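[Automated response] Your request has been received and processed.

Submitted sequence:
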Amino acid sequence: MSTINDEEAGYKYLIPGLERGLQLLLLFSQQHQELSFTELHRLIDIPKATAYRVVQTLEHMGFLQRNPRNNTFALGINVLRLGFEYIAGLDVVQAGQPVIERLRDSSLCSSHLAIRDGADVIYVARVSAAGATINQVSVGTRLPAHSTSLGRMLLTGLDRREFERLYPQPALPADAAVTDREALWRMVQEDRARGYVIGESFYRHGISSIVYPVFNREQKVTAVVSIMVPLDEIPAADRERLRQQVREAAGTISGFLGAPLY
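Generated structure:
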């Protein structure tokens, strides 16, 4: 019997539900990163009720994620977790760029990804909100870690000995909101316990930010995600929504880098 016949004989063992689920996942591409249920049903030749159950199952298992803002679907993190070892080796910028783009779209705020190099914060990716008029940092910009909300969150990855090696003198460089090493240490410990930073006019008057840490597979703080809100204070009505959006973005990038979801 030929190899082709062997393969054809094996097709009788196909699982229709699994086949339909995989066909649906294959609809997503660089050109179709988000699709509505109507678009998914139109592109795949199965009954509407079946398509609904397939989508619901894939969403439940984390292979699809729903965007509640426009009720569309995108590939979920568990699609990438299938290739865990590959994902764990992804560069943080490669993993984070599309995530901060989606964060910008959902929050309508400029979004950033930054890492720490010694006592400096380096912006490694950024996307601007439509119509943003404030001066934007560019990729590669360095700022003192102790003077920014992003830097404070990055410093939460240090223990006391590492912190003192980074800041050996009791007095910190001037021209910042915090110029005392011990005051900065206490602030960083509060940030670590809270798990995020909301900085309102901390670095620049009239600019607020929400910052969350990105963890690698060793659970070390490897980067931060932030949004920039062009206001002295973030309105109470928007604060929780924006905070959750930044948290989800940071969690997604952490998952791409192999860290457990949080």
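Summary generated for your ticket: The two ends are 53 Å apart (CA to CA). The chain has eleven helices and nine strands.
If you did not submit this request, please reply to this message.
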